[in-house]
Structure formats: C-alpha cells, structure tokens
Amino acid sequence: MQEIWKEQAGEISSTFALDTSPVAVTFTNSEVDIGEQTKRTWLCRALRLAATKDSQFVFDRENSACPGGSWHCGLSAPPAEQARRGLQEFLTRGEKLTHSIVSFQRMQDLGSSPPTGLSERIYLGPMASAPLRPDIVVFVCDPEQACRLVTLDHYWDGKPIRAELTGSLCHAAISYPVVTGNTNLTLGDWTARRMQKYASDRVFLTIPYERMANVVLAIPECSAGTAEVVIPEAFRGGAEE
Predict the structure, then answer these.
(1) Is residue 197, in this structure, part of any structural domain at all?
(2) What is the pLDDT of residues 64-116, one digit of tens each?
C-alpha cells in the first residue's frame, strides 16, 4: 500500500511552517512494530510527545496509564457503579472541573459516545513516519494555523465543522472525530493542558484522514493555502482603507 500520508504530512508541514508534527492516530487489532515498546503513559502526554518529539506509541488496555483516557478512547468500558461514584467525586470535588454530578452527567450524555470495544490497540505517532494509514490526524498548532487548516478542510464542500469543545482532550481530539467522522477544533481540557505542559498558544485540530486528500488539493487553490488573493477593481478602494 502506498503510504501517501507521509508525503501529505511533509507538504502540509512545509506549507504552514508547522513547528510540531501532524499526529496520526489509528485504531487497530493488529500488532504494530515501533521498536522498543513504550512504558505505561497517558494519551494526552503521548499526543504532546508525538507532536513535539516525534515519539511513537501503541496503546492497549494494559499500557494506557489513564483510566479516563482508556474508556474515552474505547480500550475499556466506561466506569460503572462504585467506580463511577469515585469518578463523580473526583471531577466535582477533586479536579473541580464541573459543579455537580448532574452537570457531569450532562457533559457525558450530550456529547458523543466513546468508541467502546472498537479496537485492541491504538497507534499514535508522527504522520510522516506512521506505519499505518491514519484514521484521524491531530494538529497541535497555533490558532492561525488552525484557522487556515479549517478553511482548507471545507474549501471544496462548504460544510462547516461541528465542533465539540468540552470534555477531556482525548475525547474531543480523538474519540469524537473517530466516532462522528467530523473535523473538530478543541482547546483541550484544563487538567491535560496543565499536567502535560502544553504551550498557552496551542489548540488541537483533528481532521479525519478521509478528508486529508482534499485538504492537500486545496492548498494551491485557496488563499488559506498558497493561492494569491485577487481583489476586483470595484473592491480595491475599500480593501486599501
């Protein structure tokens, strides 16, 4: 299989002068050889290291260190009974990310469901060296780069993104785009940003891989890419003011 995603990663990175690598995320039931297997870690940490250090990770139920990340991304079932009571207490009285168990319930029920049982493993690493076709591509980028990429994403079909900003970083940046097939822009959650030391100017834009070919094709056609803006004579006066 031609690994065209590697070429696409290079073209996008050079066009937007990205200082981080586009991150490929693939859900798979197959073994993935990335050399020495990583130790247990958090998905939100792996996302930062893949973007900034070109690190690769293969997650399964055993080496995913965050219970929340495991169930948000489908590697384990959502917590029930006493485990759910503990999570309610932690989010409302520990992390203080939501006011009450009622608001926590709304956060869960009004968002997309996790991809429970979707796969045995999740590959996460730089798109330019990913051994598998990505399911989604995550850009850890600045707002201007995100703006340009969003514009390219809907250049051909005009379909606006249906953003889901709230919830955990792994939910908004990984599971929501996987489950819905929607491009998503999120700020991440405050705990993940703080603990994993994401820079204050970073946002998270996720594009389903099936949309990436059109994103690349739009680069020379769209002014958010490399196309030159042409202002008609009738508009030039106002534009210059």
Answers:
(1) yes
(2) 999 999 999 999 999 889 988 988 888 889 888 888 999 988 988 888 899 99
Of 200, 167, 190, 215, the closest CA to residue 68 belongs to: 167
Cα 162–48–75 angle (5° rounding)? 70
Q: Supply the DSSP string of 109-169, one letter for each residue.
A: HTSPPP-TTS-SEEEEEEGGG-SS--SEEEEEE-HHHHHHHHHHHTTTT-PPP-----S-H
CA separation for the pair 136, 127 (Å, rounded)? 10
Distance (Å, whole) CA 188 – CA 134: 21
Whole-prediction pTM value? 0.92
Closest CA to 73 of 37, 139, 137, 122: 122
Taken as a whole, the chain contains a residue count of 241
Residue 30 lies in a domain: yes
Q: Which amino acid is at 16?
A: F
Residue 9 sits in which domain range?
A: 4-78+114-218
Contact 92, 84 (CB under 8 A): no
Is residue 95 domain-resident? no
Report yes or no: 70 and 64 within 8 Å, Cβ to Cβ. Answer: yes
Question: How many of the other CB atoms lie within 10 Å of CB of 221?
Answer: 13
Question: How many Cβ atoms are within 10 Å of 70's Cβ, its own excluded?
Answer: 24
Work out how many domains the chain is built from and give that number. Answer: 1
Kindly state whether residue 223 falls inside one of the protein's structural domains.
no
Strand order in the sheet with 136-141: 57-59, 121-126, 23-28, 136-141, 203-208, 184-186
